[in-house]
Amino acid sequence: xxxxxxxxxxxxxxxxxxxxxxxxxxxxxxxxxxxxxxxxxxxxxxxxxxxxxxxxxxxxxxxxxxxxxxxxxxxxxxxxxxxxxxxxxxxxxxxxxxxxxxxxxxxxxxxxxxxxxxxxxxxxxxxxxxxxxxxxxxxxxxxxxxxxxxxxxxxxxxxxxxxxxxxxxxxxxxxxxxxxxxxxxxxxxxxxxxxxxxxxxxxxxxxxxxxxxxxxxxxxxxxxxxxxxxxxxxxxxxxxxxxxxxxxxxxxxxxxxxxxxxxxxxxxxxxxxxxxxxxxxxxxxxxxxxxxxxxxxxxxxxxxxxxxxxxxxxxxxxxxxxxxxxxxxxxxxxxxxxxxxxxxxxxxxxxxxxxxxxxxxxxxxxxxxxxxxxxxxxxxxxxxxxxxxxxxxxxxxxxxxxxxxxxxxxxxxxxxxxxxxxxxxxxxxxxxxxxxxxxxxxxxxxxxxxxxxxxxx
Length: 457
Fold this sequence. Notes:
Layout: E1 3-9, E2 16-22, E3 29-33, E4 44-47, E5 55-58, E6 75-81, E7 85-95, E8 106-110, E9 113-114, E10 126-137, E11 140-148, E12 155-162, H1 173-176, E13 207-214, E14 218-225, E15 233-242, E16 245-248, E17 258-263, E18 284-289, E19 296-301, E20 310-323, E21 326-332, E22 338-344, E23 353-358, E24 365-370, E25 381-386, E26 390-392, E27 402-403, E28 411-417, E29 425-431, E30 450-451
Antiparallel strand pairs: 1-2, 3-12, 4-5, 5-12, 6-11, 7-10, 7-12, 8-9, 8-11, 13-14, 14-15, 15-16, 17-20, 17-24, 18-19, 20-21, 21-22, 22-23, 25-26, 25-28, 27-30, 28-29
């Protein structure tokens, strides 16, 4: 807040008087687009030509035969208000005047408390602003949520919080856009995030070469390292031929990091709202705190692939050379689950091939994942590709699984500038085994693989 300073002095006076007068508090208005909500819960992103930004959050409900759809999880995001005051709450939603009007309703929650009125019951054809209540709010961070109340295709476009008499129905979209604000991006510690990290190697650990794979283009070493955290484990290293040089791959050791997802449900924990949308799973909860010492909010998600079940890391513990082109690696989890991995490198090949065999210790639903290669910060990545959703430097705000049945090319890759490579680029790529892909018409139900360009963090 700016302060006006007035300095008054008298001739021949040895003192001066300073008067401070606060500038009148400016009115506040904050406009949030629904598609910018950080946590979408059970809502889906939908393109809508009449929406302010061309997209809305949408509740899509399609029951499987004999099953009742689960409740729609709230979409949630954090907003920063510039000052305290009495805020008027406005929501822009869609209704259908000639097709079951008033049945696609939802309600805005502010810091967990519902607004005075539901949204989506305005009776107008198309999108329309509704004033849904007033709330006395402090400056700082607040949690907004969209709570579905009808399970009938609600559509949310925008939310406006204002201390003014601004009526968004009386101004143009362009004039209203000056109040636009992106929600705060809150860092969330995902349970099981460490499953994508191998136990660190202790200083002074003894290293023994157990196995190797090599050809004219690639050399991989499988070393046993003793004295490392979590006991003895296998460390992988690699060098790649670039022209006449053999150049090391930084932190290639992370290539050996696998994990198991487990769910003990009697029926499949996966839920398909539509044949052409990614699967969802049983709802998982993540707690976040907006302010130090403030209340804890529970964010619920059913679409986070690393929360699809209980996660258990698979640590490489033994490696055996079976022939010149194959190495067998034994993996064990902290819970005692064991798996057998097979690494192979053919003569003249540029790619390592990997397969895994796992015999479950108990009944349930299982998925096995690999955190391929060392994680990189987005700022260190030049290019990504995960068709058809992610390319160049476009990344999802949270991990999103793209199934092999939904991508025209079942792969994910990223290009980085590798340290020690004289600023030359290096591309890491993971590709599905073509022989294991289904020849049936592709749906979410017959996918054999899933890809995500971001990890659990």
